[in-house]
Amino acid sequence: MKMIFTLLLLIVFHIAFCGIDARAQCPTGSLSFSTQAQLDAFPGAYPGCTSMLFSIDISGTDIKQVNGLTQLTTLSGNLKIHDNPMLTSLSGLGNIASSIGGLDIYNNSVLASLVGLGGITGTGGSLLVDNNSALTNLNGLGSIMSVGGGLGITNNAMLENLTGLSNLNSVAAAFTVSSNVSLTSLDGIEALESVGFTLRVDNNPVLSDINGLSGLNSAGGLISIYSNSVLSSLSGLDNIAPSSISNLNLSANPDLSYCEVASICAYLSTPSNPANVISNSSGCNSRAEIETACMLLPVELLFFVARAEGKDCYLLWRTASEVNGNYFEIEHSRNGVSFETIASIAGNGLAAGNYDYEFVHRPLLSGLQYYRLKLCDPDGSCSYSPVVPFQVSADEPNVYIYPQPVTSGNFQLRFEQTTTLNKILRIYRKDGMLMRKLYLAGTEQEQTIETGGFQSGIYLLHIMDEGGNNSRVLKFCVINHQ
After folding, report:
1. Which of 273, 277, 375, 458 has its CA 20 to 30 A from that of 76?
2. Residue 365 forms beta bridges with which residues?
3. How far apart are CA 375 and CA 381, in angstroms?
4. How far is CA 233 from CA 76, 103, 455, in A?
5. What is the rounded CA–CA span in Å between residue 91 and residue 70?
6. Domains of the chain with bracketed CATH
7. Is the preceding peptide bond at 405 cis, omega within 30 degrees of 0?
8. Is there a contact between 189 and 164 (Cβ–Cβ < 8 Å)?
9. Do residues 95 and 71 make contact, with C-beta atoms less than 8 angstroms apart?
10. Where are the alpha helices (DSSP H) in 69-218?
């Protein structure tokens, strides 16, 4: 009788996990969880499983949390979380600290937070966040540095900005931001430098600025900005290399009137470059209107940058020629939309050759700031430079790594203040490979971190409170003389 009972238990586990051999340390194929009971049974079925080689699919009408997966530390396959009407927390995935195959999160109607995904450093495939109607931000994705496929942020009714993707540097395929009815800005992705092909921003009815794209220097093909009802300016596209644009669609943006940013002007200067420009406001309503606005720029601006010196912002710019240039007004904004003049500097008149300017400003408030130059002629006509962002750190406790660079096989990590919250420390190689994971009590103010065996190079230290909150990333350099 005892043997029969044991056999029945094995059969139950076999059925619950879709025919996968429960005797193995980890599943030998992909897993699909359709009930809370299946998730809760995972630790008992696979007590030694920490590294999952295959994909995980989580979709069930009664699934509320994923705590049954807390033992997983790596996932080589895809993670798909979808159609879970009762799911409220992803904290059970908080120990996964690696790049994963792909990540799809969609149709989870009450999921308000992605906290719990903070250890995922990138995806080999696509990343999709779609139709999660309670999601207000992307906090929890702060460790993702690269997306190996396309990135889609679509149909999230409560999403207001892209805060949470602060370390995202590259998207290998298309980047789409579409049909997010509460999205007001693209703030949060200032670190994004390259898109593999197609940048698409469409059908976001209250999107008023795209300055979050100011770090983007390669678009990889088509740029399509259409049907964004209140978008008035293309500031944010200024730094894209024109050679990385293969097609341009600017259409059905009824308030769009400022299109003469440097990248667009340079792209349109080649008559054979294709462009569809229609149904925007005056100034952007046709290719000819934009080309005319581009020709009115009185100053050839070589660069305009903002650099930090403590909490001061050093604004530096260089001109190659100033045909009829009279003066510069320096404008500052807290939201990238409403600017105010903070200074006026005389230009160099009819000078030929390079000429350098600088100005120092100390913002009164912390957070993201925006600056632009207003370039004015003696007749009063003016044009604008690209908008440049500048981040002012809040007055929060500092964290220090010393010495820098690390040459002795270890370094000291020091916190300016202690807390009651324990911390999880993860060290990643620049390519996203996890090198070390440590736990630190919140009451410890200083810790020695070993780097023995690390090759010379740049590493990232990811610090996160237990529970997935208050994520910070520090860089350090290892020089190995052996």
Report:
1. 458
2. none
3. 8
4. 41, 32, 46
5. 8
6. 47-295 (3.80.10), 299-392 (2.60.40.10), 399-478 (2.60.40.3080)
7. yes
8. no
9. yes
10. none
Contact (CB, 8 A) for 282 and 293: no
Sequence letter at residue 424: I
321 near 299, Cβ under 8 Å? yes
CB of 348 closer than 8 Å to CB of 356? no
Name the residue among 79, 78, 68 with its Cα closest to residue 38: 68
Q: Are 449 and 438 in contact (CB under 8 A)?
A: yes
> How many CA atoms within 13 Å lie on the side-chain side of 237?
26
Could you tell me the two tokens for 223? Answer: 């740029």
Residue written as tokens 């703030």? 187
CB 51 within 8 A of CB 65: no
The one-digit pLDDT tens for each residue of the chain (482 residues) are 444 433 334 444 444 444 343 334 899 999 999 999 999 999 999 998 999 999 999 999 999 999 999 999 999 999 999 999 999 999 999 999 888 999 999 999 999 999 999 899 999 999 999 999 999 889 889 899 999 999 999 999 899 889 889 899 999 999 999 999 889 899 889 889 999 989 999 999 989 889 899 889 899 899 999 999 999 999 888 888 888 999 999 999 999 998 988 788 888 888 899 999 999 999 899 999 988 887 655 566 777 888 776 667 888 888 766 655 567 889 998 877 778 898 888 877 655 567 788 888 877 666 778 888 887 766 666 677 778 888 766 544 567 788 877 888 888 888 877 766 788 888 887 666 778 888 888 778 888 988 888 888 878 888 877 655 566 777 787 877 65
Phi, psi of 195 (to 5 degrees): -125, 135
CA dihedral 281, 282, 283, 284 (to 10 degrees): 30
The single residue listed with the structure tokens 């090759």 is 455
Q: How many residues does the chain have?
A: 482
299, two tokens: 């100053």
Q: Report residue 143 as tokens.
A: 């460790």
Are 336 and 367 within 8 A, CB to CB?
Answer: no
449 residue type, one letter? I
Span between the terminal Cα atoms of the chain, in Å: 65
Tokens matching residue 225: 């900005």
In angstroms, rounded to a whole number, what is the distance separating the alpha carbons of residues 40 and 44? 8
- Secondary structure of residue 38 in the 3-state scheme: helix
Rounded to whole angstroms, the Cα distance separating 302 from 323 reads 14
368-404 per-residue burial string, b: 16 or more CB within 10 A, e: under 16:
bbbbbbbbbbeeeebbbbbbbbbebeeeeeeeebeee
